[in-house]
Amino acid sequence: MDEEAVTRDELKARLLRPLERELADGAHDRVVAGGLEKLLENLGQPFPEVGRVLAGYRQMEVEVRKARLEEAIQLLGGKSLAQGPGDKGQSPQNPAPSPSPLHLDTPLEALNLGPGSKKKLAELGLRAVRDLLHHYPRRYEDRRTLQGVREVEDGAKATLVGKVLSRELVKTPRKGLQLVQVRFMDAWGWKFTGVWFNQPWVLKQMPEGASLVLSGRVQKRGGLVSLLVEYFEDEGGESLSTGRIVPVYPAKEGIGQAFLRRAVWRALEALGEMPDPLQPYRNQVAPARLPLGEALRQAHFPDSEARLEQALERLKFDEFLLLELKVMIQSGGSALLGRMFRVTPEMVERFRTALPFTLTGAQERVLGEILADMQSERQMARLVQGDVGSGKTAVAAAALYIAAQNGAQGALMAPTEILAKQHFDNLTRYLYPLGVSLDLLVGSMSASEKRAVQERLKSGQTQVVVGTHALIQDGVAFHDLGLAVIDEEHRFGVLQRRRLLGQRPDVLVMSATPIPRSLALTLYGDLEVSQIDELPPGRTPVQTKILTQKTRTQAYAFARQEIQKGHQVFVVTPMIEEGESEATAELAAATRLREELERLLPDVRIDLLHGRMKPDEKDAVMERFKQRAFDLLVSTTVIEVGVDIPQATLMIIENAERFGLAQLHQLRGRVGRGGLESYCILIAGETSKRTLQRLRVIEASTDGFYIAEQDLKLRGPGELRGLRQSGMPDLRLGDLASDQQIIEESRALAKAILEADPYLNHPEHALLKRELQARAEAIGFREVI
Ligand code: ADP
Ligand code: MG
User: Fold this and answer.
1) In angstroms, rounded to a whole number, what is the distance separating the alpha carbons of residues 241 and 234?
2) Which of 22, 60, 253, 593 is most buried, by CB atoms within 10 Å?
3) Phi and psi at residue 445, in whole multiples of 5°?
4) Among the CATH numbers 1.20.120.80, 2.40.330.10, 1.10.340.30, 2.40.50.140, which is that of 139-248?
5) Is-contact 685 692, C-beta < 8 A?
6) pTM of the model
7) pLDDT tens across 251-292, in order?
8) Is residue 51 lining ligand 1, measured as CB closer than 6 Å?
9) How far apart, in whole angstroms, are the C-alpha atoms of residue 507 and residue 380?
10) Which atom, in ligand 1's list, is nearest to the CA of 487?
11) CA angle, corner 185, sides to 179 and 187, nearest 5?
12) Residue 148, SS3 per DSSP
C-alpha cells in the first residue's frame, strides 16, 4: 500500500512540474518538446481525470489553457494559484478570505462589458483581470472641480462638460482652414462653442444630445465663450470621467477612455477585498507604499495626488521586486553553495602591511564586502566596478591572498596578454613578498613553458595564476580552485566563464565600465555590486576641452607641444562610413586620419592600431608604444582598456559625439596615469545643442558614475553603448535611471524571501508566486554567470 502511494506521488510530482512550468511560461505549449499532450500520453496515464481536463490542449486559447492547467494542477494536489494566503487547500478551519466570484486570473469576459469588449481588450493585450488592473493610466486629468462656463478665464486651460446642441463645418475664407464648431450647453445651462481646426472627422463624433468632456484653451469675446479643444471624450455613463482625478489610458483607435474606465471600475468592484501577496512583508515594503488592492484602486481612481503617489510607489516596488525575484530564481544564485573561507584580522593586516601604499576608504569598504562574501557559505558572485586606476586589482589581490592562506588556488583571467602581464607584474609586487607562489599562463608561451605551469597548477604548487583564455584551454586543471577573478567581464562569453567556474569557486568580476548602480543591480541580477568610487590620492584630474571642426587643428598644434616635451599622444577616431562592414570602415577612417596627421606633423613618429589586427599584433603595437618607440598612436576604439602608458598625456577624440559618454570617459582614462599633467580634447563633428550638452558632461566631471548616470538620463538605458537592447528590462512604471532606492529595497526583500524559500513553495508565498508567473513573463534580463 505504502509503496504504491509513494510511487503514485512520484508520478504526480513528475507530471506536476512540467504543468507548473507550462503555466509559468504563459501556456504557449512550448515547455514540453512535442507538445503537452504528448507528455500526457505517457505520464498522464495514471491520472485519467487530468487527461480529460487537458484533452485538446494544443487547440485551446491561451486563457483557456491557463484555466485548465490550474485545474489539472489542483487535481494533482499542486498549489492552487488563486487561493488566499493562509489557505493551504485542505484545512477547513483556516480562515479563508470570503470567496469572491472573481479573481485576478479570471478572463475579462466575466465582467460582462458588452459585445465586442473582449476583442477591444485583447487588442490592448488585456485578457485576464490582472492584465487590466496593470494597464496603468498614461496620465491623469484633474477634474475634481468641474467649472461652469461662467467661471472660466480668457486664455486659461479648462475642462468643461457639455451636451451637444448643434454642429457645423466652416471654411475660413482667407486661410482656407476647416473649422468644426460645436455648440454645447453646460450643466448650469450656459452655452459655449467647442472649436477644432482642420479635423473635419470630429464632426461625426458629435451626435446631438451627446454629453462630452472637453479640455482646451478658453477664448472669451464679449459674452461668447469658445474652447479650442485639445482633448475630448465621451462623458461615460458612470460619471467616472468627471468630478475626480480621471485616468487617461494608453488606448487605440476605437477603444474609448470611458469604456476602459468602466472596465477597470467593474473589475475593482467585482474583486472586492484583494489579498496582498506581500502581506507577510508589510514592514519591508514600507508603510508609505499602499497595500496592493488599495494601490491598484488609487492608481486608477486616485482620491488625491498624495494617494496616487503612494499607489505608484507600491506598484513600482512590486515591479522591481518581481524583476529581482525572477532574475534571482532563474540564475539560481540564491541557492548556490560555495566555499567558506576563513578570514582573520591578522591575515588582512599582513596584506595591508606588505602593500606599498595605504588602501583608500573605498577600497577598504569594497574589500570588506568581498571578505564577507568569502566567509559566507554562499558562492560569491560580485562585480567590482571602478574607474581605471581606482585600485580594483589591489583589492582583488587581497582576496587572492586570503584564498591562498586558506590553502586554495586563485586565478585571475584577463582579456589580453598585455593586460595579463600587467596584472601579473602587479600581483607579484603585492603577493610575492608575502610568500605566495605565482604563475603566468598566456598563449604566446612555448609549449614546454605552458606544460610546466599546468603541472604546477595541477599539483597545487602554484597558488595564484594570472592568464588569458589560455586558462580555460584543454589541459588546464586546478588542484583546488577557490577564487576566480575575471577582469573586464564583457570580453568573455558566458560559456567561456563557465569553464573556469566549473569547480564553483567564489567569483569576482572587475569592470571599469561604469554602469549606474541601479542599472547594474538589475542587469547583472545574479551579481552583487561593489563600487570603488574614489581614486587613490595624488592623481591630478585630466583637463578636458571641447573643440569644433573649425578649431580642430588647435588640437594637433597642442599635440606637437606635448610630444616636444617627450610625452605621448593618443588620437581616437570612431567609425564614420556606413554601409561597409564595421571593421573595414574603421580601418579606412583610421588610415585616412593617420595620413592626414603625417602631413600635419611631419616630425612626429606615428603608428596605427585598428580592429582588423590580430590580438598579438595589437599587443605588439601597444608594447612598442609603451616602450616609446613612437609618439602618437592613431587608433579606432580598440585601445586596450587598462594598459598603462605612463608618458601619455594627451587624448584627442575625433567626432566625439559618436561615442557614449561612458565610453568617452573610459578613453580619457588612458591618459594621466603617470602623474603628469594630462589633457583630453573632444572634437565635436557637429555642434547641435544636444551634442554640446552631452559633451559638456565630460568636460565638467571626471566621476565615472556621475557620467554614466547622466548618460543614462540623456540617452535612456536602451541606448547605453555596449548594452544590448534585448537585455533591458521592460518596465511599465519603474525607471532604472532614477529609482535606485526602490530597486535596492526590493532587491533586499527579494533576497530575504528567497533565502527562506528558494522556489516560493511556502503557502504564504503562493500569491506572490502566482504574480511572478503571471507578470514576469515580459521582463527580460541579462545572464552573467
Ligand atoms: P585598476 O585595476 O582599478 O585599474 P589598479 O589596482 O591597477 O587599478 O591600480 C592602479 C594603480 O594605482 C597601480 O599602479 C596601483 O599600484 C596604484 N594604487 C592602487 N591603489 C592605490 C592606493 N590606495 N594608493 C596609491 N596607489 C594605489
Ligand atoms: Mg585594471
Assistant:
1) 8
2) 22
3) -70, 155
4) 2.40.50.140
5) no
6) 0.55
7) 787 788 888 998 999 999 888 888 899 988 888 877 778 999
8) no
9) 5
10) 2
11) 145
12) coil
